[in-house]
Write a sequence for this structure.
């Protein structure tokens, strides 16, 4: 059992290294509208349930703007067309669990989450927009999914702008709905 787990970790680490190289190249080709610096060697858990802003500041998909939402995020099933493969996100998750210094290193206990969700035009493969969000605690990963869906519905329904929804969720997803009056 231990040998199998070590093999899985070794494969995931190799994939993470390859995936991060691809993600970094994509990030350079499609820079975020957020300021970004060099990735920290160690990420803090002090902001949980939010990610460390130095490690995971968020990043946007440049194809998604207020002018394009009716052809992108507001089209049913669109996120499936841009969602990265699990071979990429699972490998990245293993690496980021270590960067965040979580004592629980079981990847099943985390969702490799898009900080700015795909539903709001978050960058699909940019490591600055992905982080291992715990599935446990006061505000587990599942709680954020409801917020993401409500914000997408509000954006597509014209209740709030795309930029306002992005700012609210990136600032603090736990208060995003109330900050926007939703």
């Amino acid at each position: 059992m231990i040998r199998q787990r070590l093999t899985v970790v070794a494969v995931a680490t190799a994939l993470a290294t390859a995936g991060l190289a691809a993600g970094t190249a994509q990030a350079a080709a499609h820079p975020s509208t957020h300021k970004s610096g060099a990735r920290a060697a160690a990420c803090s858990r002090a902001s949980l349930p939010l990610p460390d802003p130095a490690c995971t500041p968020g990043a946007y998909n440049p194809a998604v703007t207020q002018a394009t939402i009716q052809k992108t995020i507001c089209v049913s099933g669109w996120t499936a067309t841009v969602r990265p493969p699990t071979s990429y996100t699972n490998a990245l998750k293993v690496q980021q669990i270590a960067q965040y210094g979580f004592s629980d290193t079981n990847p099943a206990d985390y969702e490799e989450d898009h900080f700015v969700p795909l539903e709001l035009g978050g960058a699909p493969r940019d490591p600055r927009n992905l982080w291992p969000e715990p599935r446990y605690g006061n505000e587990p990963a599942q709680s954020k999914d409801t917020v993401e869906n409500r914000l997408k519905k509000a954006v597509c329904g014209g209740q709030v702008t795309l930029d306002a929804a992005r700012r609210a969720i990136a600032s603090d997803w736990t208060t995003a709905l109330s900050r926007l009056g939703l």
The mean pLDDT is 82. Helices lie at 2-29, 78-82, 86-100, 141-156, 162-172, 176-179. Strands lie at 110-114, 130-134.
